[in-house]
Amino acid sequence: MLGSVSVRVRFAPSPTGELHIGSVRTTLYNFFFARQNNGTLILRIEDTDQARFDPRALPSIYDGLRWIGIDWDEGPREGGPHGPYVQSERLGLYQEHARRLVELGAAYFCFCSPERLAQVRAAQRARGDPVTRYDRFCRRIDAMEAADRATRDAHVVRLKVPDEGTIGIDDLVHGHVEWPLASIDDQVLLKSDGFPTYQLAVVIDDHVMGITHVLRGDEWLPSTPKHLLVYRAFGWDVPPHGHLPSVLGTEGGKKLSKREGAAVVAVAEFREGGYLPEALVNYLALVGWAPGSEDEVFTIDELVRRWRIDQVQKGGGRWDPERLKWFNGVWIRRLSDDELLHRLDPFVPSEWDRAVVRAALPIIKERMETLTQAKELLGFLFTDDLPTDPTRLLPKKRTAPETRDAIARARAALAANGAFSKPAIQAALEGAAAQLGWKQGDVNMAVRLAVTGTNVGPPLYESIALLGRDRALARLSHAEAVLAGPDPARS
After folding, report:
1. Tens digits of residue pLDDT in 162-183
2. Which residue, among 190, 195, 229, has the nearest Cα to 104 in the 3D structure?
3. Which residue of 6, 104, 141, 279 pairs with 146 in a disulfide if CB–CB is 3.0 to 4.6 A?
4. Nearest C-alpha neighbor of 304 from the set 32, 10, 97
């Protein structure tokens, strides 16, 4: 409850493609507002643009929002007292209200053909007009004549914008915003195929569904005066509006597009890329909202308690993939090892022994930014396909004979140790380095290349302990044999 008002907000995506990360941010803010006020969140599908309809979009919306952790109260599958919740199933409602607007003198029938409209735009461009707009030709037709023609001829219904004055709103984010009516086009409200445009459908649906607060992306702010005129024509109260800042692209200037270069922007791609929903929610909440403190790591429940509409910023927030990775690493380390093992299940081969993976988690957690990295970090534990090319076993600036001698000393030191724990392994390799007069890092690199086949990975001593004595010593022996051939530096 917000005072005496039972809060009702909505998320109303257009099903034109995969669920986009910018849409999720808008949904999150509606979710926070609804839950902190014990209100109702509605999912409404705005599919009036049938030319761009994508049948994959609705499953993407449901799957993506559920994965993120957002739940809602009314929607296409859930039902509710104001259904149907898909606009293409509500055409009769919009057509009835469009006719009513004509009767009220707030709209009119337009019979102009696409060819005439194209000619009007071309003439305006030729004159150097800053914008092209409808010339109001059909607005001058007598109302009775227009009504008679509408029974026979193809037509649209246009909004009749007053010639003079201003119209404005006290936006919850932007403050007072005002528009001169002379700058507003006579927007099409109902198309010739009987489908409404967004400008008509959104007002009708928000009113009849009892929406108390409209929180939507600020790309809709320029359309708001048209919506206000529709509210005014029907004599309906205008709910408070808050236009939320856009999620900007990586360059910081334009709204994040559905394909930002090579950047991932669809929710399904984040899921497949090894991101945690907790991290995505945490990061997205901060793109356009400041908590007023130094805190930055929040659970979704904490965000419901902390988020406030008056802390939402006017300017858009830049999308920062590296910052998201940082948050993902933080949330990976927050998981228990058992929970992390569960989350990793889709990202590591099914034949890998889960007990071995579980034992290795403490040594890879600190290095992980995404769940997909686990396969590479742990791969050395599940393969015996070791390097047979001696050049792959050489630390920088070391020859094959030198490296073979170092590996032999390391193997002997490890074999002599009774225990095979991290401290014992560390002591053995430190002893080998002292005997050789090598830097510890050079010895460790030679051993790492021999036992893991890579020059990067989890901490070395713990990795050797996980391999176990027999496998570790066997890999060192293999490396010695490979390096016993001709010195690649001299070949």
Report:
1. 999 999 999 999 999 999 999 9
2. 229
3. 141
4. 32
Instruction: Please choose, from the candidates 327, 341, 401, 406, the residue with its C-alpha nearest in 3D space to the C-alpha of residue 370.
Output: 327
> Which DSSP letter does residue 307 get?
-
> Residue 122 and residue 486: Cα distance in Å, rounded?
78
- Given a contact cutoff of 8 angstroms between Cβ atoms, the answer to whether 346 and 318 are in contact is no
User: What digits encode the pLDDT tens for the residues 256-315?
Assistant: 765 544 445 789 999 999 999 999 999 999 999 999 899 999 999 999 999 999 999 998
Mention every residue, 6+ apart, whose C-beta is less than 8 A from residue 136: 186
Strand partners of residue 216: 243
Residue 51 is predicted with a pLDDT of 85
Pairing label, strands 188-190, 214-217 = unpaired
Question: Distances in Å between the alpha carbon of 334 and those of 70, 282, 331, 368?
Answer: 21, 13, 5, 12
Q: Are 33 and 309 in contact (CB under 8 A)?
A: yes
pLDDT of residue 255: 74
Enzyme catalytic residues: 258
Q: What is the pLDDT of residue 9?
A: 98
CB under 8 Å to 477, separation ≥6 — which residues?
411
User: Six-digit token pair at 362?
Assistant: 């403490």
Radius of gyration of the chain (CA): 32
